[in-house]
Write a structure and sequence with these properties.
It contains 3 helices and 5 strands; from the N terminus they run H-H-E-E-E-E-E-H. With 81 residues, it is of the alpha+beta class.
Amino acid sequence: MSRYTLIAILTATGMRRGEAKALRWSEIDFENKLIYINRTRDAPGERSTKTLNSIRSIDMTYDLALLLEAEIVHRKKTCIW
């Protein structure tokens, strides 16, 4: 994920940096405009969230959904998966 996309996710959703870094494409629901949070990434690596309250879904704005869809198209063109 590009830095621009990461910053856009953080700004639009209020996610923590570790949650955004651990985000997977399968956890983004474009149809319902939701992002599912169930893990985090920090210095030791990727792990589940610290508390059950940290597992949640966040609404995505229309603009963020367009940006993420464009990121997918770009990655498919450049074969960066």
